Structure formats: structure tokens, C-alpha cells
Automatic annotation (TrEMBL):
GO terms for cellular component: cytosol
Superkingdom of this protein's organism: Bacteria
Pfam families, per database record: LysR_substrate
GO biological process: regulation of DNA-templated transcription
Organism: Klebsiella pneumoniae
Gene3D superfamilies assigned: Periplasmic binding protein-like II (3.40.190.10)
Residues in LysR substrate-binding domain copies: 2-69
Protein name listed in UniProt: LysR family transcriptional regulator YdcI
Length: 72
């Protein structure tokens, strides 16, 4: 699974979340790349990444993506 994340998330909460995920799903490999919001959106739309973790504020740019708010 390929994850794109803002640098603050990649260095902040993401290592803990990945550690917890790996304990439950040992057979799934996670790859993390740090990206800015523009790169996250492009990566999600192109299929380069499966999950994007960032601040998305423009609904028009996010059209066609499945979104879930984890932390409001």
C-alpha cells in the first residue's frame, strides 16, 4: 500500500499508526512518501498513491476521490 503524507504527518503521528497497523496486518507492505497537497492530489488521481494524508480544503480539486475525515 502506498501512502502519501504531508511532512508533518509523516514525521508526527504516522510512524505510530504504521506500527499499530503492521502489528495487525503483517502481510501488507506500506510505503510512505512525503508530499505537498498538490502532489497528494495528483498522486491519488493518477494511482501513484493509495492513501493521501493532508489538508484538503478545495472540494473542486478533490472531485472524484473517496474522502474520509480522520481528524477534523
Amino acid at each position: 500500500m502506498r501512502i502519501g503524507a504531508l511532512p508533518t504527518a509523516a514525521l508526527g503521528i504516522l510512524p505510530t499508526v504504521i506500527g499499530q497497523f503492521h502489528k495487525q496486518q503483517k502481510d501488507i507492505t506500506l510505503q510512505v512518501a512525503t508530499m505537498n497537497n498538490t502532489m497528494l492530489l495528483a498522486g491519488l488521481k493518477s494511482g501513484e498513491i493509495d492513501i493521501g494524508i493532508g489538508r484538503m480544503s478545495d472540494p473542486e480539486l478533490m472531485s472524484g476521490l473517496h474522502l474520509r475525515t480522520v481528524v477534523p
